[in-house]
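Chapter summary example: a protein plus zinc ion.
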Amino acid sequence: MQQKKVVAERAKGCCEYCQSQVRFAIQSFSIEHIIPRSQGGKTTLDNLAFSCQGCNNHKYNKTVGSDLVSGNVVSLYHPRQEQWSEHFAWNDDFTLVIGLTPTGRATV
Ligand SMILES: [Zn+2]
């Protein structure tokens, strides 16, 4: 499927949510809908993100989540509209993604 290849190349082979690399992954990566089809999301390039299995399962069909610090419901990270590094960072030994913002915390 051509669209899948385009999405994977655009993401440079990295999960757009946790930045893990497909070449180090045990499980296959998926193309996921940022706005789920159940909420009217389209199968177009700007609504598709390259995602590892863990992030894809975790996100499922959600677009909002709770920020554990403020308790507010905020929108989840949108890989097409936002910069990963503004919302997330790796911990010191690169085993955990840390949310830096309400959106980042709600997404992780
Ligand atoms: Zn991931």
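Key point: The two ends are 29 Å apart (CA to CA).
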